[in-house]
Amino acid sequence: MMRRAAAGGRGVRAARRPELRLPPLRPYDGGLEPDGDYDGLDFGRANLTGQDGAGARFLDCALTGCALDGTRLPRARLLDSVLTGVRGVGTDLAEATLRDVELADARLGGTRLHGAALERVLIRGGRIDYVNLRAARLTDVVFEDCVLVEPDFGGARLERVGFAGCTLRGADFHAATLTDVDLRGAAALDLARGVDRLAGAVISPAQLVDLAPVFAAALGVRVEG
């Protein structure tokens, strides 16, 4: 990792971003149903609080300003869709699939994404607190200009993942596997656990200096004046 950082990160493959072109959408003012099929719909500012959409499929959909407090979407599939300004606490997306999705300006807390699969996903702006991504698979995912408070990547697999202009506070990479993960663009990088799992990531020289105490602690090295 340190050799790659010193070499300027050459050979690090950048994440592929989603290319979304939504068709004309039909307004939708109904609720969610387990295993529901939602195609080409605009959910507007729908209140989906506490609703159950387990196993549902969303294709070419837009969710704008929706309330997702306690919304159940385990094993759901969100495909070629845009979520803008959604908000909620305790949204359940365990084992969900997100592919070619843009999540913009979200305000989420305690979101459950453990075991989920994210592919070509852009998470831009907003703030996400205490997201559970344990054992998830992230491929071609970009976190851009957002705040992540205590994100849990424990046991996750991250491949071609970038953090551009993000603030990471108390990030947990325990038992994670990283491949072509670019942390250089993070505005702030604070690790709670998993510094020993950063092989396969690239950091900047400044970040290396900032993380030196964490590396020393992980190696059992005492630094004394």
From TrEMBL:
Q: Where is this region: Disordered?
A: 1-32
Question: Which Pfam families does UniProt cross-reference here?
Answer: Pentapeptide, Pentapeptide_4
SUPFAM superfamilies recorded: Pentapeptide repeat-like
> What domain of life does the native source organism fall in?
Bacteria
Q: Which Gene3D superfamilies match?
A: E3 ubiquitin-protein ligase SopA
This chain belongs to the protein called: Pentapeptide repeat-containing protein
| Originating species | Streptomyces glaucus
